[in-house]
Specification:
Length: about 350
Amino acid sequence: MRYLIEHQLRRQGYEISLAKDGPSGLRSAQLYQPDLIVLDIMMPGMDGFEVCQQIRNDAEINRTPIIFLTGCEKKEYKMRAFDVGADDYLTKPFQADELTAHVTAVLRRADRIQTGHLKAAQPQVVALYSPKGGVGTTTLAIQLGEAMTIGEDRPAVLIDLDLPLGGIAPALNLYTGQHIVNLLATKPKRLSLPLIKQFVQYHRADLLVIPAPGNLFDLEEKVRPAHLKAVLDTLCSNGYQVILDLGSALTGLTKAALHLSDVVFVITSGQSVANKLHDTFLATADRIGLESHRLMPVINELHGPVGNVKLARVPVARIPHASARSRTRLWLKEQGIRKLVSATL
């Protein structure tokens, strides 16, 4: 695996130093002071957590960005990696292009932290909503967040408002002990970025997640839609792009989120039932006070390729169905996600 990674990164023009275990990796880091370290967790002699901690305690190399690349998918491993100072966390198996993208993004992030040159972007609230469930809204929200942070150098917060169960935490293998409903119970005058970060988990270095509770409860008693604006305003004022996964239920909280969003991607799978509900929502959205210019149709081919789809409005993006066997369709899928990012610029 080390040699495969070395080959891939050398092809991209990087100089590589290999280490076969924790102690030799630490010595190599101290000797060469590299621009970036790719680190496993399970290693002979010293595990990756200890290596990372020692690097963070070394004054000469403690600012070196670290990507954990590991087969350990347990959520406690991921949380611990960020606790000891990881900049990113990638699990095996992975695609070669995926590793290159993460290396590039982490290096860019380290450079802008060092130089203080942040990419200028007006923070916005972007919502993803579908009148019909099961069209991949959650997956698309996650992919949009990753595209913003990896491809656009824009720190983002992904919030699961598909209550009460949500889909982001199980998809990303995150905890749900602290969640968005608890945060919304906080009085607006007490809100601050440090307080909000108590409810946040790291998915990527610049992609933070606030999950849904993941269990059933009485929404009417606990959810406070009026507090949502204060949370969103605090995040945007601190430079974060906010992505809201609204699911498909039109609740009081969902309506509040739709009104507070700068851009709303309305998702359909391209299949007939989903298309009818999609068009009905767009045609009647003005009844709940939603301006049509903020509503942007998107076709997400979750269930497989679809032919010519006729919607009431031309979609801003089409996300093709893709599989690992089709590099062309994977590339087309990536282009579709980039169109979503472009629509928020």
